[in-house]
Design a protein that fits this description.
HSP40/DNAj peptide-binding domain, Helix Hairpins, single chain, alpha+beta, 3 domains, 3-stranded mixed beta sheet
């Protein structure tokens, strides 16, 4: 991570109980100071990225709670990845976070496109292996007729006379405290700085048309239900040639009746008959990698746990895998024939205290398994 695991609160210069407004104010102040276009410091770009990442985590209640409880390791296991911003346009960064530009003024001309949200559903086995999913989305793309400028081909565009093409109007107010300059979008041209007399007929002057697309999204192994994947630049096209927004894909993992997932560990149950439990048996048990043969010794008890090391879920953006824990369940017959009942009664008459003597190591094995 860009911050080399430095404390996010320390980077922004706020306390751990700072509210949302304090965090936002601190980030705005530092971003203005550290942006490479403003600061001459050799480490300005690195520090700018650090405070940007810190704000991205602390401004979101979900990631902030995860960071407060588990630190940087919790963010990594939770699938957090910092957004990438083009440092050439600090206005795009402030627009993405706050909905405005660096100085709170309306922006004229090109504007970044909106983000798009989509949702896909995958199986738990696919989440364990990693997979590729097709995601259909409807996004705004530059108009092919006018090339995205919103002007009918062969016609001209004139400069807005009210703002002289700047797209902005300034009002100066004087008081005993000095001059205050307020900047707003030009109402005549809508902030574009131009007047279009002949808008493109295909897109009605918008410069964009709606298009259905199908994107192939790489799902990383170990992803958790409810996590999002960001595809940079795959959202709506920006106005008048502005940068495209991003596509955020929400991943849903279908429940699997064979397994229960807890973090990176997987739990399942194997059913043995009383005869199999008493005499021992080899049975096939499903795992995320396919069925495996497990041998159970004679006298295996209900509640025992067999641990399959490294057979659980992969660690997202990390190394290794969790474990697969198999819980033994012994099934008791509900209906008996007369012969079966007689045989069981005969067995009971020939049994003594040693037949059911407990395995003294069982509790220790159980504790070890859960550790």
């Amino acid at each position: 991570m860009a911050t080399s695991e430095r404390d996010y609160y320390e980077l922004l210069g706020v306390s751990r109980d700072a509210d949302e407004q304090e965090i936002k104010k601190a980030f705005r102040r530092l971003a203005r100071q550290l942006h490479p276009d403003v600061s001459d410091a050799p480490d300005a770009e690195v520090r700018f990225r650090e405070v940007t990442e810190a704000y991205e985590v602390l401004a979101n209640a979900e990631t902030r709670q995860l960071y407060d409880r588990y630190g940087h390791a919790g963010l990594r296991s939770g699938g957090f990845t910092p957004r990438h911003f083009d440092l050439g346009d600090i206005g795009d960064l402030f627009s993405a976070f706050f909905g405005d530009d660096l100085f709170g003024a309306a922006r004229s001309g090109a504007a970044r496109g909106a983000d798009v949200a989509a949702e896909i559903e995958i199986d738990l086995v696919d989440a364990a292996r990693g997979t590729t999913a097709s995601v259909p989305v409807a996004v705004a793309v530059p108009c092919k007729t006018c090339g995205g400028d919103g002007i009918e081909p062969g016609t001209n565009v004139s400069t807005c006379p009210r703002c002289n093409g700047s797209g902005r109007l300034q009002q100066v107010a004087r008081s005993i405290f000095g001059e205050f300059i307020r900047t707003s979008a030009c109402p005549q041209c809508g902030g574009s700085g131009r007047l279009v007399e002949h808008p493109c007929k295909t897109c009605d002057g918008n410069g964009r048309t709606l298009e259905e697309r199908t994107l192939e999204v790489e799902i990383p192994a170990g992803i958790h239900d409810g996590q999002r994947i960001r595809l940079s630049g795959e959202g709506h096209a920006g106005a008048l040639g502005g940068r495209s927004g991003d596509l955020y894909v929400l991943v849903r993992v279908r429940p699997d009746e064979r397994f229960v997932r807890e973090g990176n560990d997987v739990f399942s149950q194997v059913d043995l008959t009383i005869v199999q439990a008493a005499l021992g048996a080899s049975v096939r048990v499903p795992t995320l990698d396919g069925d495996v043969e497990l041998a159970f010794d004679p006298g295996v008890q209900p509640g025992e746990v067999r641990v399959l090391r490294g057979r659980g879920m992969p660690v997202l953006q990390g190394f290794g895998r969790g474990d697969h824990r198999v819980l033994v369940n012994v099934t008791v017959p509900r209906r008996l024939t007369d012969e079966q009942r007689r045989l069981l009664e005969e067995f009971e008459r020939t049994s003594d205290a040693g037949t059911y003597s407990p395995d003294e190591s069982f509790i220790g094995k159980l504790k070890s398994a859960f550790r």
